[in-house]
Amino acid sequence: MKKSDIPNAISALRVLLIFPIVWLLFKHQYHLALGLFALAGASDALDGYLARKYDWKSHLGGWLDPLADKAMQISVYVSLAWLGLIPAWLLFAVIGRDLIIIAGGLIYYYKFEKIDASPSLLSKLNTLLQILLVLIILVHHSLYAFPANFVDGFIYLVFGVTILSGLSYVLTWGIRAIQLRQGNHD
Q: What stretches of 50-183 adopt beta strand conformation (E)?
């Protein structure tokens, strides 16, 4: 293994952490799940830092890192919904947003042009809030019981930003597609 493979190895490790985190959630070992989830978050920051700092970027890493993040997020959200710790409608909004973005991106790519897949600022905020919600729920059930209205309010905040972020992508890329289509017919 070369030094430049370290970020990819860290991303692969993050994928492997999904299984014990989900298992711990179903065993109601929220404090241990919190620790592993925090470790996964730190590994995400570390592999990104190493890739940028030392230019250890790769085609594989460009796919592996976001797939590891998405697999972790979806696995944890499905688990939390199954356990009744988040409402099913939030899970459907989170997954629905991602599916709409993926489907829209593929349609745009094949019907119009290649796209730059860099996330918007609203999308980055959405991801941050979704991660914070998981941390809040795990802390709430293991270390410190937040007031119920705080947890519920954060759930609604994540829902609102998830919907806004999805709509933002649909509008941005929909308008670009219309502009391209109109430009081709002029």
A: none
Please give the Cα distance from 114 to 105 (Å, whole number): 9
Name the token pair of 181.
């289509």
Could you tell me what percentage of the chain is helix, strand and coil, using 3-state DSSP and rounding each to the nearest 5?
A: 85, 0, 15
Q: How many helices (H) and strands (E) does the chain have?
A: 6, 0
Give the pLDDT band of residue 80 (cuts 50, 70, 90): very high
CA distance 123 to 116: 14
Q: Specify the length of the chain in residues.
A: 186
Q: Which string of b and e fits 61-78 if b means at least 16 CB within 10 Å?
A: beebbeebbeebbebbbb
pLDDT of residue 105: 87
Domain boundaries of the chain, sorted by first residue: 1-84, 86-186
Inter-residue contact 14 to 36 (CB < 8 Å):
no
What is the reported pLDDT for 49?
A: 87
Which of these, 166, 87, 79, 91, lies nearest to 125 by C-alpha position? 166
Whole-number average pLDDT of the chain: 92
Residue 166: Cβ-neighbour burial (10 angstroms; 0-12, 13-18, 19+): buried
Rounded Cα gap, residues 76 and 80, in angstroms: 6
Q: What is the pLDDT of residue 117?
A: 66
